[in-house]
């Protein structure tokens, strides 16, 4: 430890044992002091077990939903007529960032999805079908998970169809289109796209239709969806999992049939 480091952190000091002032045998005194000091050298720094798991790797998953839904307190001084107390919502003078959530490579997709704040809606909908239980199996699976904003916007546009218990098959078809059978890390996707004759890769999904992945010729960003329908850039680029790979999309993915229905004018 350097002199500068010593000035920043000083370990707790242990009092000298009472027999240190006497004439106890040298070896006995030395052993006693070593045993006592051994318990006084523990660092007060907390070990973050979330980002330093044992014998595995970890990634941090982003969260933006909190920023999107946060509103500041109003500036008016209006008071409640009954209580004569301010009706302004409580607000903080300190801006707190959105907490990222950890994804451990040795966990199954089902566990990681449950731990992600940004995928809360997606995970809830998977749980209302049997697809979340499927992602607990050996697989492997490659998941292109839909963020909260994309699902909430689509649910509002369709009059709450995503949460309608009368249409479970429709929900399963939408979610199944985001789950590919097989393990496709980011590097493998890039190599397969370059090797494909038209530089487009068709992947089989759990709803029976093919999901296409390609590289945008202008930005070289990976795109996923249908070539002549809805498509999205990939956001989180392939977190390894015990039973597959996890990606985040930036926007909504829909199977071709659902795209036609959602584009039809409402009556």
Automatic annotation (TrEMBL):
Domain FAS1 span(s) in chain numbering: 106-253
Disordered: annotated span: 69-91
Pfam families: Fasciclin (PF02469)
Domain of life: Bacteria
Name the record gives this protein: FAS1 domain-containing protein
Organism: Acetobacter ghanensis
